[in-house]
Amino acid sequence: MQFKRILLKLSGESLMGKQGYGIDPDRLNMYASQIKQIADKGIQIGIVIGGGNIFRGLSGASKGFDRYKGDQMGMLATVINSMALSSALESIGQKARVLTAIRMEPVGEFYSKPKAIEALNNGEVVIMSGGTGNPYFTTDTGSSLRGIEIEADVMLKGTRVDGIYTADPEKDPTATKYDEISYDEIYNKGLKVMDLTATTMCKENNLPIIVFNMDKEGNLVRLMSGEKIGTYVHN
């Protein structure tokens, strides 16, 4: 499978590295280096990052935060992560642009599809932050939406595990991995890949997903070189 334009979804939690909070510079630089390697091959890259290393709207709501405000705090957390990644990319010579779903110039430019596509065509890595700009949506839904909007060939969901399993492999040692699976099977088996809103959007707009382990150095480059890594989700 050859992909010319991808949407890379990164986990905010993974940015913590071994620290347990915030942004681990080693993990951040490893991500930036892998992203630059595939950008150097001419692949156009849009990125959406979660904010879970700083603040999660949903867990905030369970601790007494108003869900609306909690989600807005989560959106701002994704902007901080996006700025960190763009800084790491620029420091190694890769042009990057942060677009925000909420107006906050000069932190980033206000997102629009034409602006994102123009930047991608100019060889910039486009980091789309602030989720969808609306509460009650996760960054998974934000990445599905942005992937569809920028007309990506695939969404790559970088996680801590190397694909989709029959059960949580961190809890169940007998869990086995799927090499590929359909959206309908994910529904029917009740597998937790992304939230249902995000999965439905990808299914209805025919955007395939590859779930893979982004925290293993070199995996992104191997995936883009055609190696079968992770789990391929399709209609």
Short account of what is shown:
The protein is of the alpha/beta class.
Explain this structure to me?
The chain has helices spanning 25-39, 57-62, 67-91, 113-121, 139-149, 183-189, 196-204, 219-224, and strands spanning 5-10, 44-49, 96-100, 109-110, 125-129, 154-159, 164-165, 177-178, 180-182, 209-213, 231-234. The protein is α/β, with parallel strands linked by helices and 235 residues long. The strands form two sheets. The chain has a nine-stranded mixed β-sheet, with helices on both faces. A two-stranded antiparallel ribbon has the order 7-8. Strand 1 (5-10), helix 1 (25-39) and strand 2 (44-49) form a beta-alpha-beta unit. The longest helix is centred in the middle third of the chain and has 25 residues, at 67-91.
DSSP strand content: 15-25%
**Parts with pLDDT < 50 across at least 5 consecutive residues:** none
Rg calculated over all Cα atoms: 17 Å
Terminal Cα span:
16 Å
Shape descriptor reads globular
Characterize the main sheet.
9 strands, mixed
SS class: alpha/beta
- Level of helix content? 25-40%
Reading side by side through the largest sheet, how are the strands ordered?
Answer: 4-3-5-2-1-6-10-11-9
Question: What is the chain-wise order of helices and strands?
Answer: EHEHHEEHEHEEEEHHEHE
| Number of helices in the DSSP assignment | 8
Mean pLDDT: 95
Total strands: the figure is 11
